[in-house]
Amino acid sequence: MDTTLMEKIARLAGLDKALAEFPDDVAAAFAQAGLHRGIMHAPEDPAAEPWPPMTAGDTL
Fold first, then answer.
1. Which of 11, 14, 17, 40 is the most buried (most CB within 10 A)?
2. Is residue 48 part of a domain?
3. Strands (E) located in the chain
4. In Å, how far from its chain's centre is CA 10?
């Protein structure tokens, strides 16, 4: 794992305090996010939603 990249991303996300107090947890989250990045695919159309919009009603 690239710890320099992890620290930069954590700081950009505003996780300075978490990085200082819980570096192992931030590293675990970073590693898990890396695994999911390979599984999830962004839609080709940027306006597309990954799931249908949620609406209230009796269609459930």
1. 11
2. no
3. none
4. 11
